[in-house]
C-alpha cells in the first residue's frame, strides 16, 4: 500500500482506507488475506470512466452513498473511478453538462461503466421522463451502446421500483427490460448498501471480471442469502415469539417482527450482516419489519403489514437460541424449515406449532406463537 497519496489528499485517512478495503473484502466473501490485493486494485492508476444517469427516482441511492455518516465508501468509490457525468454531483449544467456526457461516451466508447439510477418509463415513447430534451429511453439506449457493462443501482433501475407499482401509469421498467446485449449487474435496495456498490466495482477492478450473479442479476456475494438467516430476532422466530404490535412490550423486547409483516424470510440481501451507517443498525434492529426492498415481487406489491409465504427451509442462523423455560416446547430451525416447506404457508415457527399442525395446516392467527411466550 505504497501509493496512497491521492486517497489521503482526498480526505480519507490511511486507517479508513484500510478499514474500508477490509470491510469490502468481507462483503465480497473473500478471506482477509485478499484485502491487500483489493487495496492494490483500489489505488491502481487506471481509473475506469463511469457515466451515471438518473431517470425516474428520488436520488436516494446517490444520497445514501454520499450522505453516510462515515464518508469512506463514497470517497473511495469516487477516487477509484473517473466519474465523467453525474447530474447530482457535477458542477456544470445545461449544454456544458451535455457536452461532457457526449465527449466521455465518444472518447471511452466500449470502455466505460454505465451506472443507472431510476426506472425508465416506456409508455407513449417514454415522454414521462426527459433530460436534456431526450427521453430516458433514448438516453439509456444511446449510453448503453458504448458501455462495457451496466450497473443498475437501486430497486428502481433494477426492476422499476415504485414507479412500476400497479397500475404503473408510465410503463416504468428496469434497465434489463430494455437492454439485452450488455452485461447488467443489479444492485437493488431502497436504497442499497453503499458497500454493495463499492464491492461490485472493487471486485471488477481486482479480478477484471464481473462477480457471479444470481438469477435476478444480483451479485451472489451480497444477495446470496436471506436476511432471515442472520437476523438477531431469529431465535425468537424459532421459538414462536412474535411482537404483537408496535410499541407493545414484545416489540421492545426484540421479538420477531414476522407477524407485523417482516419480509425477511423471503428477502435476499446482506442487510442483517453488513448493516448501515457504520453504526451497526438496520431496519429490523430498530424495530421496523423488513419491507423486502431487494425483491421485485415484494416491494410495493405486498402491503407492509402482510405476511410473506415461507416456502423453503431456512438454515441455522448465527445467533444462539432463546432460553425457553419449557425446553420441551422449543423448536429447532430445522423444524421451522420442514414446517415451512410442508405447509407452504406463512407460519411462525415453534414446537407448539409443530404439535398443533401435524397435517401442516395454516395456523389460526392466535396459534402462530408469541402469545403464551411473552408471559415468561
Ligand atoms: S421474520 Fe424478520 S424479524 Fe423475524 S427473524 Fe426473520 S428477518 Fe428477523
From TrEMBL:
Residue intervals of the NADH:ubiquinone oxidoreductase-like 20kDa subunit domain: 58-203
The compartments listed are: Periplasm
Binding residues annotated for [4Fe-4S] cluster 2, in chain numbering: 228, 231, 256, 262
Q: Any idea which positions bind [4Fe-4S] cluster 1?
A: 58, 61, 156, 190
The record's region (Disordered) falls at 356-376
Annotated SUPFAM superfamilies: HydA/Nqo6-like
GO cellular component, alphabetical, reads: [Ni-Fe] hydrogenase complex; ferredoxin hydrogenase complex; membrane; periplasmic space
Q: Which GO BP annotation is one of this protein's?
A: anaerobic respiration
Query: What is an example of a Pfam family matching this protein?
Result: NiFe_hyd_SSU_C
Q: Which residues form the Cytochrome-c3 hydrogenase C-terminal domain?
A: 223-301
Q: Which positions bind [3Fe-4S] cluster?
A: 271, 290, 293
Concerning InterPro entries, the annotation shows:
Cytochrome-c3_hydrogenase_C, NADH_UbQ_OxRdtase-like_20kDa, NiFe-Hase_small_C_sf, NiFe_Hase_small_N_sf, NiFe_hydrogenase_ssu, TAT_signal, TAT_signal_bac_arc
PANTHER family, sorted? HYDROGENASE-2 SMALL CHAIN, NIFE / NIFESE HYDROGENASE SMALL SUBUNIT FAMILY MEMBER
Family listed: Belongs to the [NiFe]/[NiFeSe] hydrogenase small subunit family.
Spell out the protein name for this chain: Hydrogenase (NiFe) small subunit HydA
Native species of this protein?
Answer: Trichlorobacter lovleyi (strain ATCC BAA-1151 / DSM 17278 / SZ) (Geobacter lovleyi)
Amino acid at each position: 500500500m505504497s501509493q496512497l497519496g491521492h486517497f489521503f489528499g482526498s480526505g480519507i485517512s490511511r486507517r479508513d482506507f484500510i478499514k474500508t478495503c477490509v470491510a469490502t473484502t468481507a462483503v465480497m466473501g473473500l478471506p482477509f488475506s485478499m484485502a491487500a490485493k483489493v487495496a492494490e486494485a483500489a489505488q491502481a492508476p487506471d481509473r475506469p470512466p463511469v457515466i451515471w444517469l438518473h431517470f425516474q427516482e428520488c436520488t436516494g441511492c446517490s444520497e445514501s452513498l454520499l450522505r453516510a455518516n462515515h464518508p469512506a465508501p463514497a470517497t473511495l468509490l469516487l477516487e477509484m473511478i473517473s466519474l465523467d457525468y453525474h447530474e447530482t454531483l457535477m458542477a456544470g449544467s445545461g449544454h456544458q453538462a451535455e457536452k461532457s456526457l457526449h465527449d466521455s461516451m465518444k472518447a471511452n466508447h466500449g470502455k466505460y461503466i454505465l451506472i443507472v439510477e431510476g426506472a425508465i418509463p416506456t409508455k407513449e415513447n417514454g415522454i414521462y421522463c426527459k433530460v436534456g430534451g431526450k427521453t430516458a429511453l433514448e438516453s439509456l439506449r444511446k449510453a448503453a451502446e458504448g458501455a462495457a457493462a451496466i450497473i443498475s443501482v437501486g430497486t428502481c433501475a433494477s426492476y422499476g421500483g415504485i414507479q412500476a407499482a400497479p397500475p404503473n401509469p408510465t410503463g416504468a421498467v428496469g434497465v434489463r427490460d430494455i437492454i439485452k446485449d450488455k452485461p447488467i449487474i443489479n444492485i437493488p435496495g431502497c436504497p442499497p448498501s453503499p458497500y454493495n456498490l463499492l464491492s461490485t466495482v472493487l471486485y471488477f477492478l481486482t479480478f477484471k471480471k464481473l462477480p457471479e450473479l444470481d438469477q435476478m442479476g444480483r451479485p451472489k456475494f451480497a444477495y446470496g442469502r436471506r436476511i432471515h438467516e442472520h437476523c438477531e430476532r431469529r431465535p425468537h422466530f424459532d421459538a414462536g415469539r412474535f411482537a404483537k404490535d408496535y410499541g407493545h412490550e414484545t416489540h421492545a423486547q426484540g421479538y420477531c417482527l414476522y407477524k407485523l409483516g417482516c419480509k425477511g424470510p423471503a428477502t435476499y440481501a446482506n442487510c442483517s450482516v453488513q448493516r448501515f451507517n457504520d453504526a451497526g443498525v438496520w431496519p429490523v434492529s430498530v424495530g421496523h419489519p423488513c419491507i423486502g426492498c431487494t425483491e421485485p415481487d415484494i416491494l410495493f406489491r405486498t402491503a407492509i403489514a402482510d405476511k410473506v409465504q415461507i416456502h423453503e427451509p431456512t438454515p441455522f442462523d448465527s445467533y444462539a437460541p432463546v432460553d425457553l423455560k419449557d425446553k420441551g416446547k422449543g423448536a429447532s430451525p430445522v423444524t421451522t424449515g420442514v414446517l415451512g416447506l410442508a405447509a407452504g404457508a406463512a407460519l411462525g415457527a415453534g414446537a407448539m406449532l409443530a404439535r398443533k399442525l401435524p397435517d401442516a395446516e395454516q395456523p389460526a392467527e392466535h396459534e402462530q406463537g408469541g402469545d403464551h411466550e411473552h408471559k415468561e
